[in-house]
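Aim 2 progress update. The chain analyzed this quarter is reproduced below.
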Amino acid sequence: MTEHQTRTPHPRSRRGLPRLMPSDLRRSVIGAPMAGGPTTPELIAAVGEAGGLGMIGSGYLDAVGTRAAIARVREITDAPFGVNVFLVDRADSDAALAEVGGPEAVDRYAAAIGPVADRLGITLVEGPGFTDFDQAATLEALVVDPVAVVSFTFGIPGRDVVEALQEVGTAVVVTVAGVRDAHRAVEAGADWLSVQSSEAGGHRSTTTIGEAPDEITTVELVRAVRDALPEAQFVAAGGISTPEDVAAALEAGADGVQLGTVLLRTPEAGTGALHRAALADPRFIESRPTRCYTGRYARALVNGFVAGFDQVAPPAYPYLHVLTGPLRSAAAEAGDDDVPPLWAGSRWRAADAYANRSAVEVVAELWDRAAKPLPR
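Predicted structure tokens:
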């Protein structure tokens, strides 16, 4: 336990229900809510069994799908777990798109990737529409049927949302990518934060779509947030793949860590065969933030699609997500790793040492070894 874990009083709802904090966990490790398949109920259960906190990645699920995922996790574990929700703002999406010419920018991008679609034998969606992934209904479901933690990505929830969840005993977590948003999240009433650096695989939780990615490391960002918010509890996310990474984040001031890429090759993860193989393939030598798949910056291995379209993709989330969905699925089915997103944090190579090991072992070893003196 770090000194920071003793500073914030334990929050309770108005009904006296305690809310789960990182310092309550036997091992202060969060399993990243990797939407789209990698974070399975089995992975969530394994992280919980290890004493951490597993998280459902409900980003691309509707309310019905989220409720089904919750029910399945409850069938296989008694450990606490959480749900992550994407906060998608129509006004922000349309403003970002307007800055690059409006819907025509999406049409131009569709034309640019058209040859890839033709090669895969699919037809791209014309004029992909907006979706917020059933956000309002999902939040309502989480109040009616509470879970231990609800975290938010891509935005900061309103105080009414925060208080409604806290009233039923749910801890509210906001994923932030900088000090300014960390302050805003605390002011909105968040119980704790997930502080996510540029090293994180997959989407970065910037609160505006057009925001360019910075290059701040996890340790640098943790130090900055700790200096700015000495009383707050938060976990560090981004490129954490070894006990040394965990120890560095804790030493910098984090109260725990969030693991993502290092869990992708565990047997409990639902990582697709193509993605799983790519993480071990020496042909891939770089991961970088790109918006070529969804219109939002997300860190992936650099394959042919990233190299070819990274510079021409407009900031058009979730429109590009809808547009490229069929193309991504077709490429994965065809076994073509030059096209689909191969999400990976900056230190995906360091995660090789934990490939094919149970998530229970990975969580336990990374946390326990970080708590002991490490060889220098």
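Residues 1-6 have pLDDT under 50 and may be disordered. Residues 103-120 form the longest helix (18 residues). These observations will guide the mutagenesis experiments scheduled for the next reporting period.
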